[in-house]
Specification:
heterodimer, A: about 110 residues, mainly beta, four-stranded antiparallel β-sheet, B: about 110 residues, six-stranded mixed β-sheet, globular
Chain lengths: ~110, ~110
Amino acid sequence: DAGITQSPRHKVTETGTPVTLRCHQTENHRYMYWYRQDPGHGLRLIHYSYGVKDTDKGEVSDGYSVSRSKTEDFLLTLESATSSQTSVYFCAISSGGARDTEAFFGQGTRLTVV
Amino acid sequence: TQLLEQSPQFLSIQEGENLTVYCNSSSVFSSLQWYRQEPGEGPVLLVTVVTGGEVKKLKRLTFQFGDARKDSSLHITAAQPGDTGLYLCALGLGSTLGRLYFGRGTQLTVWP
């Protein structure tokens, strides 16, 4: 299994509070991604990173920010959580560079905003 | 607007039946990937197709890339309960694997 760890695996938080999810990899891969998964929507890209301190927005970036200060860690922050951000969040990594490069996923974080 | 349209959204069949699911776009792909996701897990790559008209087989799964590289299909022969899962197609954009976009998926249930 690819070395990806998401933490926490489950979290319940109140509306308006800040929340940070962590993705840690041991593969030294260049690309890291944050997705959210909701019924009927598949996986939607929130933000991704193509290197240390290099990040870009995805499809659904409003209300989310990210940081990558080290190759191995990619943090997703909800500055002020809302009920619409209740979802399952997946981190993925990829070495990139080729059309057939595989993306490896963590096991997900289930976030509930009440 | 979805970059990738998958159909059907849900598919429920009996063990032993054959099925085909589709992934379409109005854009030309440089490559397309198929992933399968089981409950409580992250998606896992099944195959990547890169050449128009390409056909790849993975046991009972056959993947086809359209000649114009704008569509792909996944055919499963003699489906088994172990094939149950969410099947996702994914498109990598740009000259490298930058933004990796997924379709909404096909939820397949195979009943014994």
